[in-house]
Specification:
This protein is α/β, with parallel strands linked by helices and about 290 residues long. Helices cover about 40% and strands about 15% of the residues. The strands form 2 sheets. The chain has a 5-stranded mixed sheet. Strand 1 (about 5-10), helix 1 (about 15-25) and strand 2 form a beta-alpha-beta unit. Helix 7 (about 195-205) crosses helix 11 (about 280-290).
């Protein structure tokens, strides 16, 4: 099945978009029927991006939240009966990143990245930290691809795994899952909680969210929110999505998947300690859901 790719660019992180697209089109073989939508969230200058003929520009009439923009991508994918591969704009794509993503059609797939695996090149010219600025990367594409090759050699092929925190920075939702799980919940606000919510809803339907070890990207992390919000705005955004999540999913889910602390007693009470230790979070969610 062919794919709908969707990426959002925002004024706060628009600097990163051209680099994301450059590496995407260099390292991503798109099939004839694949589509690519670039969603302009807040009236950015896109003139230098028109060199990419495959891109369809979508201009929002007003700024949308993360969930609203993903839902636009879901609309495009469902309308054309395609899988959705959604991309944030603060990514650097690496050689062959797409191949493992295309192979997985029975789960939501997320490439591995520097939030999970941190590496450094020989002579430490490139250090992949959890959170990075563009200057930390310094356009060291060859060093990045060398690191990715070494990363892949450390593991057996086709390995998938789950962690407690699985942010939707780059993810594939197969068409069948889109039809059964639907859209992201937009009641969480500008950003936060909606990806955890979708993970839970998918698990309830029998579909897990998995990291793919064979696919590895550089993610600069939070360039559309961190550093542009005041402390008060961040606190207000965090409170809103936590309150919405608590009301929707209850204390136990909130403690484990949103607050991510002081939940050992919950695991023990529900006899879920073994599933947690083994990283079987989809099954854990299904056991918790009542």
């Amino acid at each position: 099945m062919s794919n709908t790719f969707a990426m959002v660019t925002l004024k706060s992180s628009h600097f990163y978009t051209s680099y994301a697209l450059q590496s995407f089109f260099k390292h991503t073989k798109m099939e004839e029927n694949d589509q690519f939508f670039l969603i302009d969230n807040d009236n950015n200058d896109l003139e230098n991006l028109l060199v990419y003929k495959k891109i369809n520009i979508v201009k929002n009439n007003k700024p949308f939240s993360f969930a609203e923009n993903v839902n636009q991508g879901i609309n495009f994918a469902k309308k054309n009966k395609k899988n959705l591969i959604f991309l944030t704009n603060d990514l650097v794509f690496t050689e062959d990143w797409i191949k493992p993503v295309l192979l997985n059609s029975s789960c939501i797939s997320i490439p591995s990245n520097n939030q999970i695996f941190q590496y450094q090149s020989n002579f430490e010219n490139l250090k992949l930290k959890m959170t990075m600025d563009f200057n930390d990367f310094n356009e060291n594409y060859d060093l990045l691809n060398d690191i990715v090759k070494k990363h892949k050699k450390k593991f057996n092929s086709n390995q998938k795994f789950q962690t407690l925190l699985m942010p939707f920075s780059c993810f594939k939702i197969p068409y069948d899952i889109l039809n059964q799980v639907g859209y992201l919940d937009t009641t969480y606000g500008t950003g936060g909680g909606e990806d955890v919510d979708y993970r839970i809803r998918s698990a309830i339907k029998g579909y897990d969210v998995n990291f793919l070890i064979d696919s590895y990207l550089l993610h600069f992390h939070g360039k559309s929110t961190w550093g542009i919000e005041t402390r008060e705005q961040t606190e207000e955004r965090n409170k809103k999505y936590k309150d919405v999540f608590l009301k929707k999913w209850g204390h136990d889910m909130t403690q484990i998947f949103i607050l991510r602390k002081d939940f050992e007693s919950i695991l023990k009470k529900e006899n879920l300690e073994d599933l947690f230790k083994k990283g079987k979070f989809g099954e854990l969610i299904r056991k918790l859901y009542k």
